[in-house]
């Protein structure tokens, strides 16, 4: 039923929890897990005047690679096949497009991420992905979620 599971990550605790669920499902279904970290294009253009957009983008890309590396390490420990991806763009656009282009049949992501206020039911990236994705989206919360 599930062959390609996509976990988008912003390196947050909630995304880590989503990885745990994605790995469990991947093990049961013998699926491949794709991990995608999106460098938010709006963060590139909003940088400090003294720093060039290219420098900001390269730092953000390094951070994003650190996030996907961490998930790859977890995959190696767990025996799950992980394909990493880093892209720049608007996160929900990049997530939905990646899913369409890679035959993804399930997206697993956190209810919240790094920046959100927990009084909202869902973070904006998750809300927009749920609205727009043509494949099911499994949302995972952490114990510390207040909502
Ligand atoms: P907001 O961003 O709206 O202030 P938030 O940070 O709490 O709130 P989201 O950004 O929607 O919430 O994060 C929810 C989930 O979306 C994360 O757990 C992660 O799975 C995914 N996600 C968020 N940002 C990115 C990103 N830049 N790249 C990949 N996945 C992301
Ligand atoms: Mn966020």
UniProtKB/TrEMBL annotation:
This is Universal stress protein UspA related nucleotide-binding protein. The lineage of its organism: Archaea, Methanobacteriati, Methanobacteriota, Stenosarchaea group, Halobacteria. Belongs to the universal stress protein A family. InterPro entries: Rossmann-like_a/b/a_fold, Universal_stress_UspA, UspA. Residues 1-141 form the UspA domain. PANTHER family: STRESS RESPONSE PROTEIN NHAX (PTHR46268), UNIVERSAL STRESS PROTEIN UP12 (PTHR46268:SF6). It comes from Haloquadratum walsbyi J07HQW2. SUPFAM superfamilies: Adenine nucleotide alpha hydrolases-like. Pfam families: Usp.
């Amino acid at each position: 039923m599930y062959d390609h599971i996509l976990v988008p990550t912003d390196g947050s605790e909630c995304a880590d929890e989503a990885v745990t669920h994605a790995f469990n499902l991947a093990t049961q279904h013998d699926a491949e897990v794709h991990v995608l970290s999106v460098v938010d294009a709006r963060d590139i253009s909003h940088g400090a005047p003294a720093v060039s957009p290219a420098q900001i983008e390269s730092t953000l890309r390094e951070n994003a690679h650190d996030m996907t590396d961490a998930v790859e390490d977890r995959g190696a420990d767990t025996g799950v096949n992980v394909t990493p991806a880093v892209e720049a763009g608007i996160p929900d656009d990049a997530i939905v497009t990646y899913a369409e282009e890679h035959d993804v049949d399930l997206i697993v992501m956190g209810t919240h991420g790094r920046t959100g206020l927990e009084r909202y039911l869902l973070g904006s990236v998750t809300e927009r992905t749920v609205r727009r994705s043509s494949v099911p989206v499994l949302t995972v919360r952490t114990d510390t979620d207040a909502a």
